[in-house]
């Protein structure tokens, strides 16, 4: 393999953000939510596997289009400026110059089509196919590609909601295909899962506020004052805490909040790091770890409770 091919492969890997696995962890939560007799059913495993593979391609298309739009409007060039040591330019192939616009656009369309085929295949082979699940999958696919392209949802005030909603959908959709059910516990865990990416995304938005304001991308951080943005992040963190306390009423065990105690404590530290100490990017990195701790906690709860 030539040096050029290796370099190009790394650029596409970074374009697809394949090192950020946090949305993909949802299938682990789904698998542990299943009854033990169902977890190793060949049809269920195949369905979840095909859905996960489709998810990888759909998200790759989404983030590629997001990079293309961010490059064209100048926000990525501002946010990933050479003199900003907190943001790594090589993670944005267009900004770094390792890919051009045509290559990124072709990649987005190819991965988008493959993702659509795989999700269609998952629906066809799934043990169950309730209408709500099919509609959820179709809607998730459509709005993922419209996140920063086409209607540009993230440029019309829907960015924060979409980041969370994508996580909710990526738990509920495969769960529906595997079980045909919609349970309170599955809903609660999907909501908690979706809040994870949101609660490191809002710290990225806080750091990127200048670039987003310059191009008119209306994130909460860009629309409000620093104090208003802080209150928003604190409110979302508090909503996560309230949801954790409510899970026992939605079908979870009474000790569920105790299991999520590491998430609660770490979330308080995240807010302190970001807004008391002003270390936004360190708080963002902590948010990624908190999300993974939460996923681990959900998995442990499910393996203990669902027997």
TrEMBL record:
Single GO biological process annotation from the record: vitamin K biosynthetic process
Q: In which pathway does it act?
A: Quinol/quinone metabolism; menaquinone biosynthesis
- How does the record say this protein sits in the membrane? Multi-pass membrane protein
Q: What are the transmembrane regions?
A: 21-38, 44-65, 107-125, 131-149, 161-178, 184-204, 230-248, 290-306
What InterPro entries would the database entry show?
A: UbiA_prenyltransferase, UbiA_sf, UBIAD1
Q: Chief location of this protein?
A: membrane
Subcellular location(s): the record lists: Membrane
Q: Keyword set for this entry?
A: Membrane, Menaquinone biosynthesis, Transferase, Transmembrane, Transmembrane helix
Q: What is this protein called?
A: 1,4-dihydroxy-2-naphthoate prenyltransferase
Q: Which organism is it from?
A: Amycolatopsis orientalis (Nocardia orientalis)
| Lineage, top ranks | Bacteria, Bacillati, Actinomycetota, Actinomycetes, Pseudonocardiales
């Amino acid at each position: 393999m030539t040096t050029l091919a290796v370099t190009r492969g790394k650029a596409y890997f970074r374009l697809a953000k394949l090192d950020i696995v946090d949305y993909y962890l949802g299938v682990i939560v789904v698998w542990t939510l299943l009854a033990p007799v169902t977890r190793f059913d060949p049809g269920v495993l195949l369905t979840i596997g095909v859905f996960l593979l489709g998810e990888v391609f759909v998200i790759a298309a989404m983030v590629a289009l997001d990079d293309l739009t961010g490059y064209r409007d100048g926000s990525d060039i501002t946010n990933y400026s050479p003199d900003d040591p907190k943001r790594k330019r090589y993670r944005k192939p267009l900004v770094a110059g390792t890919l051009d616009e045509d290559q990124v656009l072709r990649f987005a369309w190819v991965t988008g089509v493959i993702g659509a085929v795989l999700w269609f295949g998952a629906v066809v082979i799934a043990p169950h196919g309730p209408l709500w699940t099919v509609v959820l999958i179709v809607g998730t696919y459509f709005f993922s590609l419209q996140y920063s392209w086409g209607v540009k949802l993230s440029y019309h005030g829907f960015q924060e909601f979409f980041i969370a909603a994508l996580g909710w959908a990526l738990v509920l959709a495969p769960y529906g295909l595997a079980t045909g059910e919609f349970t309170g516990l599955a809903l609660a865990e999907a909501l908690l899962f979706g809040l994870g990416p949101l609660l490191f995304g809002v710290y990225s938005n806080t750091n990127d506020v200048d670039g987003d304001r310059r191009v008119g991308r209306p994130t909460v951080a860009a629309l409000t004052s620093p104090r208003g943005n802080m209150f928003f992040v604190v409110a979302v963190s508090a909503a996560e805490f309230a949801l954790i306390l409510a899970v026992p009423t939605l079908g979870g065990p009474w000790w569920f909040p105790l299991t999520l105690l590491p998430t609660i404590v770490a979330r308080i530290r995240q807010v302190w790091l970001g807004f008391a100490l002003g270390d936004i990017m360190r708080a963002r990195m902590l948010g990624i770890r908190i999300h993974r701790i939460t996923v681990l906690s959900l998995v442990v709860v499910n393996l203990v409770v669902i027997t």
